[in-house]
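Course exercise 7: structure representation. Students receive a sequence record and must write out the corresponding structure in token form. The form below is the worked example handed out in class, using DNA-directed RNA polymerase (253 residues). Read each field label carefully; the graders check that inputs and outputs are placed in the correct fields and that the protein name is recorded exactly as given.

STUDENT ID: A-19
EXERCISE PROTEIN: DNA-directed RNA polymerase
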Amino acid sequence: YVDADRIKIRTSRGVDEYILDKFIRSNQRTCINQRPIVKKKDRVKRGAFIADGPAITRGKLSLGRNVLVAFMPWEGYNFEDGILINERLVKEDIFSSMHIEEFQIEAKELRSGVEEITADVPNVDESYLKNLDEKGIVRIGAEVEPGDILMGKVTPQVEIKLTPEERLLRSIFGEKVQKVKDNSLRVPPGIRGKVIKIKVFSQENQDDLPPGVLKRVKVYIAIQRKIRVGDKIAGRHGNKGVVSKILPEEDMP
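STUDENT ANSWER:
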């Protein structure tokens, strides 16, 4: 049996199952992903490669891309460690890479009350809430952009003085009407991607959380980044430099 997440191999002792790493965030915020390279009914021997990983192709080290390189001066843009690249490398995603960003939010117990993660966020346009589920957490697979709400959170505010409207509501309903503040987690500027994973930790599930923290939610967003000015690139022999300019195809030598 073979799919994107696991490989099962029948042996003389039974069935061995291999779980593949899918879209795991590295310490450098890059994406670690394994892909099966065998098919159903293939015969494999001990030591055979059954899946590729990052920088591995068919069991061989595969770093970087092969591109045509010219060693020559070009109007001062490649002075010292400056490197000019063709705009086609950007258009065709030759050096594009996948990165995973982690965002988290906590619901705490405060002196003014208990914070709540919810989809009912006051005074917010519905367009910013379109990706939230009924619990106020963004859905897996949602495409997000700057300003979108990843998790809705409201924080109770300490009441100092009641307005006439609040006094009227309290007299009608006979209960305290408490103000809440919008403390939702939003996508920061410059981040556009797809939600690939969500982790929820809570006191109800007996997860290890700091005192006063009732719930913690982590959201992982996969982002495709194209090569740009300021990025560092290197050759296989240790020669490295920084992209100083991206030239249109017609201006390349």
